[in-house]
Each structure stands twice: as C-alpha cells, then as structure tokens.
Amino acid sequence: MTVIHLTLKIWRQTGPESKGSFKTYESGPLATAMSFLEMLDVLNERLILSGEEPVAFDHDCREGICGMCGAVINGKAHGPEKKTTLCQLHMRHFRDGDTLVIEPFRSRAFKLVKDLIVDRSAFDAIIAEGGYISVNTGGAPDANAIPVPAFTAEQALDAAECIGCGACVAACPNGSAMLFVGAKISHLSLLPQGQPERSKRALALVKKMDALGFGNCGNEQYCEKACPKGISISNIARLNREFMKAAFCSVEE
Amino acid sequence: MSWILTILRSSIGKKYIMAVSGACLSFFLLSHLIGNSVSFLGKEAYNSYASHLHSIGFLTYILEPFLLFVFLVHILTGITLFIENLSARPNRYAVPGNERNWSASTMPYTGIIILTFLLVHLLNFHFITRTVSTAELVRTTLSNPFLASFYLFSLSGLTLHASHGFWSLFQSLGINHPKYNKFLQQGGLATAVIIGTIFILIPLLIVTTDSFLQ
After folding, report:
1. pLDDT digits 0-9 by tens, B139-171
2. Mean pLDDT across the stretch A84-105?
3. Pick from A22, A171, A216: which is nearest to B14 by CB?
4. Residue A116 located in a structural domain
5. Which of A106, A185, A190, B124 is the least crowded, having the fewest Cβ atoms under 10 Å away?
6. How many domains does chain B have?
7. Please, are residues A85 and A165 in contact by the beta-carbon 8 Å criterion?
8. Average pLDDT for chain A
9. Tell me, what DSSP letter sits at residue A55?
10. How many residue contacts between A and B have a Cβ separation below 8 Å?
C-alpha cells in the first residue's frame, strides 16, 4: 500500500457572518486508495479526538452521482481531475508532500454556511420556478408511446446528467449559473414531454436566475472545464436560443 | 413595449445587446480595414480614396451617428456587465486556477484600452483642422514614436478583444452546432489575427520604413 503525506490549508469559518481564514494541517499518513472525502474523514477523527472542531463539508452518496460534495482544490472546483466529483477524487492523484489549498465554492448566490459548506438552495429555487413538466396522473404510460429520436434522447440525457453540484458557478469568474440552467432547459425542452411549458420555462428560469444574484455569462468556458459530468456549453447556446424564441416569438409575458 | 425592456435588461438580453452591437462594430472594423489597406497601393490611391470617402454625405449624416450609437450601447452595456459581474463573485479564490482563458478574461480591460485608443485616434484624425493630405497627416502623426507604440499596443489589445468577441457573439446568439463549431472558433481567432496584423502593419511600416505613404 502506498502512503503519502499532504499539507492541507483549509478554509475555516464558523458561520455565515463570521470572518473566515485558512488553517494549516498536516494530513498524517494517507493511503492512496482513499478518496478526498475519506481523507477529510481521517483528519476530522483526529480533530475530534484532540478536542478541535471538525471541518464541516457536504457529502451524501460518495459515488459521484448526488451532487452534494464539492470544494475548490488549488483553484479548481472538484480538484484537478477532469469529470470527477470530489468524492471520486482519489489520493493517488496527489504526490507525497503536496500542499492542497481547500476552499468552499465562492459566489454571491451561494451563501457560506460553515467551513466548506455553502447553501445551494438557489438552484432549487430555479427548478421550482419552471424546471418541471406536466404529466397525467394514473398508470405509467407505455414506453415508446411517444416517439423520440434516439439522437434527441441522447442529447437530453447528456444534459440530464447535471447533478446540480454548483461547480459551474464556483468556476465562473462571474458566478453565473448559465451552465446549470442551460442543462435543465436542454434536458426538458428537447423532449416532447417538455413542450407545453417550453416558452414559459425559458423565461421563468432566466428571470429567477437573475433575481437570485448569479452573474452574467461572458462565454469564458470555465464552467464546462469544471463540470464533473462534462455538460457542454452547447447547452448554454441552446438556452440562448430558447430564451430568444420565447422572448420574441411566444405570447408568454 | 415593456416586454422588450424586460428582455433586454435580463442577463441573456444583455448578451444579445453585446453580440449584436459587437457584430455591427465588426462590420465597421472590416470596412475600416479595407479602407486602410488602400494605403498599401501608394499615396495617390490612398488620398483619392480618402477624399471620395469624405464626399459621401450618406456616411456623415446616417452611418456616423449610427456608429456612435452602437459604440455607446456596446460600451455602456459592457460597463454594466463588468460592474454586475464583479459583485456576483465578491470573494476571490486564494489560488487562481491555472488554465486562464486570456482573451475572455481580459475583455473589460482590452475594452478600456480600445476606448482610450478610440478617443486618441479620433483626436488625431477626426477632430482636426486639415491642412495637408490624408496620407501626409497619417505619416506625420504616426512618425511620433510614442504615438506609434501606443497604436501598436492598442491594436494588439483590439486583436485580443476580437479573438474572443468574434466567436463569442455567435455563441451568445445561440449559433453553436457540431457541424460548424470548429470553424467559428478557429475562424474567429484567425480573422482577429489577420485583421489585427493588417492594422498594425500601418504604424509599423511608417516607423520602420521611409518609403511608406511618402
């Protein structure tokens, strides 16, 4: 078993209003098979035993599909590996003696709760505003009852891969949520089931996104690089098209 | 009509404004470039081109005010976006990510360089009482090494600005497709470099040679 030692500079902040700062910890011996979150678990066990407040961080499934975990490691959301969530980032990608600067996602729209935890309920508020489709109640409809071309289904599924982790907002110099909203628009508006609310959805999501304090997209493409699910900025272009269509060609206010 | 204001005030609406005004400015840049290129044909051709250009009333009374309007829209919307975006990410990261997108990240700053250049350029050649031919005016103005280096610096800034802008305006208008994405991205970059190089050639040739426009 290979073992490495890291120096960890972690952002500590006791609450939303308090002033935060970096605190340096020596990791102690770490197995390279450990995930990033397991490394934090080990550190926290030691902190608890020594009577210090453990590092607060978000996590849930720990298999890269729930979107709960996330922090900025050496300036990169979810760390240096491509298409990887923090829980799927393993210690073997670091070298013995490396220093890791660990910060929370930073954006006006994501209020810091504690240490590495930020409040991403702004995403939920956007979804509640129009990220849904209308379906009849009753028995499940037959599969393939509504024809969907395979390519369209693939495109919608690619967009539906978005786990709402917020890395796009964290990586964007403008704190813009366009990749997230673009993914939701593509996911729902490409499919026949999403047609009834199509125009309303585009207008409502953008209006809510602006109201929640996210910044403006400058086509800088940092979001696409940070996304653990590889959501492409072609979804932002689709959002731009959908919004234009809804704004100029629909009767929705 | 309130719906149109609502749209244009939204984040995506402002992208449309930047894209459409940017496209208009690109057309202006292209026509300016073609005009400037006449200087490579010699002093007589250039002077005759300039005097013909100034005699077209349509340009002075319709296109000039329109151009001023487009510039103002692009600049004011750009400043609004810059201020809004600064406040959208109040806390910076301690470690900057190492893959910088230079042309995109510097858009507001190259924009300010271009604006400063525009004012100097207008003072040099537009708001001036003419006593000599256009070719002579260009030659004497740009023989000043300080001014020539300022032109070289600003035109490099313009190239950087356009290298992001040309692709970006298509993306903002939703023009993005696997069939032509590569073309737009690489074509945009190539166009910016070609336009920038030709513009830069003029002050460069004046400073380095004695025969250009002489």
Report:
1. 999 999 999 999 999 999 999 999 999 999 999
2. 97
3. A216
4. no
5. B124
6. 1
7. yes
8. 96
9. P
10. 123
* B94 C-beta neighbours (distance < 10 Å), count: 15
CA–CA min distance B26, chain A (Å): 18
Whether B85 and chain A come into contact, CB under 8 Å, resolves to yes
User: Given an 8 Å threshold on Cβ–Cβ distance, is A218 in contact with B81?
Assistant: yes
Which tokens is A132 given?
A: 């849904």
CATH number at residue A186: 1.10.1060.10
Looking at A111, A141, A176, the residue that finishes a domain is A111
Contacts of B101 in chain A (CB under 8 A): 220-222
* A151 CB neighbour count, 10 Å cutoff: 9
Assigned token pair, A147: 């024809």
The torsion angles phi and psi of A48, rounded to 5 degrees, stand at -65, -45
What are residue A102's DSSP bridge partners? Answer: A10, A73
Nearest to A173 by CA among A72, A89, A249: A72
Q: How far is A215 from chain B (nearest CA, A)?
A: 5
Q: Is B29 within a domain?
A: yes
For strands A99-103 and A72-73, give the pairing: antiparallel
Closest CA to B23 of B164, B166, B159: B166
Residue with tokens 């009482």: B129
Helix or strand or coil: residue A251? coil
Amino acid (one-letter) located at A249: C
Q: B8 to chain A: nearest residue by CA?
A: A247
Q: What is the CATH number of the domain that holds A24?
A: 3.10.20.30
Domain end position, chosen among A86, A111, A136? A111
Does pLDDT of A69 surpass 80? yes
User: A43: pLDDT confidence band, cut at 50, 70 and 90?
Assistant: very high
pLDDT band of B98, cuts 50, 70, 90: low
Q: Which residues, listed in sequence order, are joined to residue A99 by a DSSP beta bridge?
A: A7
Q: Identify the domain containing residue A232 by its residue range.
A: 121-249
Q: Could you tell me which chain B residue has the CA closest to the CA of A73?
A: B95
